[in-house]
């Protein structure tokens, strides 16, 4: 199947389409492409061969799974060291206009392109598992582009955007492991709080559940949510209490169930959140 998706190699270094082009090359090196530039972004995915990439005079030896991002107007060429060896790679071209439209939707689409443009980092390594996920998305896109299936014109842009976002996320998470760890902890805290609203939810309890310090829980939560853990738990308990009261539960049982020491503290918190007492709220909503 993959053989059917291959493209005959061409030395052309300009785009025919307005937005993007994608090629899968797998051949023995026969046609030399000299140092050149172009006015679009090039994503180059290396799979097989004895090859280096040269960008602005700097050579980088390539290994399986490497991705090279070449911004517009950067002088570059592939240097093939062993012409007898098969040379296999994907080449993905994205116009500046299409990249700009994506970045207007979300800056996340542009992280990788701006990283290459501003910092000058062009070669990004990935492990086998990560690159397999990238290959799957690329083959899925090539297959859709080559087949005449219903909905093809609608699905191709979705797959292109998904691939570009995947590449940005892959590099961002590789370069920012601490941020990813914090986001994972935050999501787990949210889930834990939802599942244990009727239990004690002190900082000590949360820290113990995830084997981290109280300070780290407080820091991560405030960083991700913009409010403290205590404020978030109080809001979730208020919402749960409101639903229980509207469902006909006895108010005295509700405040005890959701961790309030006494009715007066529950009454103050409820009035502060909803502008009226629990009893008034129920009468107002069930009128």
UniProtKB/TrEMBL annotation:
<dbReference type="InterPro" id="IPR003313">
    <property type="entry name" value="AraC-bd"/>
</dbReference>
<keyword id="KW-0805">Transcription regulation</keyword>
<dbReference type="InterPro" id="IPR018060">
    <property type="entry name" value="HTH_AraC"/>
</dbReference>
<dbReference type="Pfam" id="PF12833">
    <property type="entry name" value="HTH_18"/>
</dbReference>
<dbReference type="GO" id="GO:0043565">
    <property type="term" value="F:sequence-specific DNA binding"/>
</dbReference>
<keyword id="KW-0238">DNA-binding</keyword>
<dbReference type="InterPro" id="IPR020449">
    <property type="entry name" value="Tscrpt_reg_AraC-type_HTH"/>
</dbReference>
<dbReference type="InterPro" id="IPR037923">
    <property type="entry name" value="HTH-like"/>
</dbReference>
<dbReference type="GO" id="GO:0003700">
    <property type="term" value="F:DNA-binding transcription factor activity"/>
</dbReference>
<dbReference type="InterPro" id="IPR009057">
    <property type="entry name" value="Homeodomain-like_sf"/>
</dbReference>
<keyword id="KW-0804">Transcription</keyword>
<dbReference type="Pfam" id="PF02311">
    <property type="entry name" value="AraC_binding"/>
</dbReference>
<feature type="domain" description="HTH araC/xylS-type">
    <location>
        <begin position="187"/>
        <end position="284"/>
    </location>
</feature>
<protein>
    <submittedName>
        <fullName>Helix-turn-helix domain-containing protein</fullName>
    </submittedName>
</protein>
<dbReference type="InterPro" id="IPR014710">
    <property type="entry name" value="RmlC-like_jellyroll"/>
</dbReference>
């Amino acid at each position: 199947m993959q053989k059917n998706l291959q493209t005959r190699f061409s030395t052309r270094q300009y785009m025919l389409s307005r937005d993007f082009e994608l090629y899968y090359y797998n051949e023995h090196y026969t046609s030399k492409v000299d140092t050149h530039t172009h006015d679009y972004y090039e994503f180059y995915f290396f799979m097989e061969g004895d090859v280096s990439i040269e960008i602005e005079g700097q050579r980088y030896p390539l290994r399986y799974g490497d991705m090279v991002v070449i911004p517009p107007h950067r002088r570059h060429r592939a240097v093939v060291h062993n012409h007898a060896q098969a040379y296999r790679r994907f080449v993905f071209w994205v116009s500046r206009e299409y990249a700009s439209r994506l970045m207007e939707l979300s800056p996340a689409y542009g992280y990788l392109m701006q990283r290459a443009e501003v910092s000058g980092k062009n070669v990004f390594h990935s492990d086998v598992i990560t690159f397999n996920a990238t290959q799957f998305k690329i083959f899925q896109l090539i297959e859709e582009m080559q087949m005449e299936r219903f909905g093809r014109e609608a699905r191709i842009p979705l797959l292109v955007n998904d691939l570009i976002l995947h590449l940005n996320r892959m590099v961002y998470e590789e370069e920012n492991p601490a941020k990813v760890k914090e986001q994972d902890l935050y999501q787990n805290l949210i889930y834990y709080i939802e599942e244990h609203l009727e239990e004690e939810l002190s900082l000590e309890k949360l820290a113990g559940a995830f084997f981290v310090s109280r300070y780290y829980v407080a820091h991560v939560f405030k960083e991700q949510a913009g409010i403290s853990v205590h404020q978030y738990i109080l809001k979730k308990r208020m919402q749960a209490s409101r639903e229980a009261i509207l469902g006909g539960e006895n108010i005295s049982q509700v405040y005890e169930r959701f961790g309030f020491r006494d009715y007066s503290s529950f009454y103050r918190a409820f009035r502060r959140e909803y502008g009226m007492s629990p009893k008034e709220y129920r009468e107002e909503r069930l009128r």
